[in-house]
Amino acid sequence: MKIATLSNASVIHTRRWVEHFRARGHEVRLWSLEQGPDELRAHALPVAPLPGLLRYPLAVPALVRDLRAFAPDLIDAHYVPNYGLMGVLSGWRPVSVSAWGSDLLLSGRAGPLRRLRAHFVLSHADLVIADADNLARAARELGAKAERVHSVPWGIRVDRFREGERKAGLLLSTRMHEAVYDIETLIEGVAPIMAGRADLELVIAADGSRRPALERRAAERLPAGRFRFVGRLEPEALAAWLGRADVYLSGSHSDSTSLSLLEAMASGAVPVVSDIEGNREWVSEGEGARLFAPGNPAALSRALEAALADAPWREAARAHNRRVVEARGDWNRNMAVVEDLMTECVREARR
Asked: Which range marks the domain in which residue 226 is found?
């Protein structure tokens, strides 16, 4: 297939997706308003100095000129409000739109104008790919035709994530430092547990706009010398940290399928995570994880205490979680399903 992918070139998910389909032998060209790594060979679209509501639609004429020259079999658009909108406005068919989570679970429902935009995109898409059941349901509620919506978790490259030399008491967060991931609650929740146990250490990976405030909060609330911020990690370093971690922490208020959760499950880092629908598609209280109410530090403290107090349960959870990810969260197997859906979408359009 000749695939025209529209997506943010600076995001790792875009890179993984494009490289996968190129490796499969498809001719994939990427268009983006954001600059990405040179090896992606993204086609730059004009960036008007305007809010995103206008910036993306105004780039459509330039996109259409390029599409006419490329003549793709399929438009592959990622994230509903911006590149999904551009794909539909281009007039090219068929259009596959992939939802990433917050584009439907949060922004897609935030007010009548955003709901109208999501409805316009989803109702005109020939294929809608969601990476979790809750996201697929949101797509249908916002206007996608039920028969065109498919729930397929992207998954992870399971063989990259293995148990390493476990460090007892190592707590690890790998979520971005943004409001939706609520690392403030993690810091507040682990603080009393760390105060009472000298064997615990907290490592906070990744980065984001809230990092300076989070570093100040940690310095105020956590024992000196027993926490650290390690920033963005390359895939190998991330896998190494997860393989050593005793417990994985996430306080997210909203998620579809969290790849960070799947990476932790594959690596043997026992999840202590927020009790939200996206997480419950993979773990449940006492079966693979301990759950806590989002935004509730005291509930996190209780969940963490329960996990740390029961070593046999943690070992059973590690084995259980690895089996779950191998069965349902394998990148190669799940992306083959996506490829089949795209191929059938092209066949339908030709018919």
From this structure: 158-328
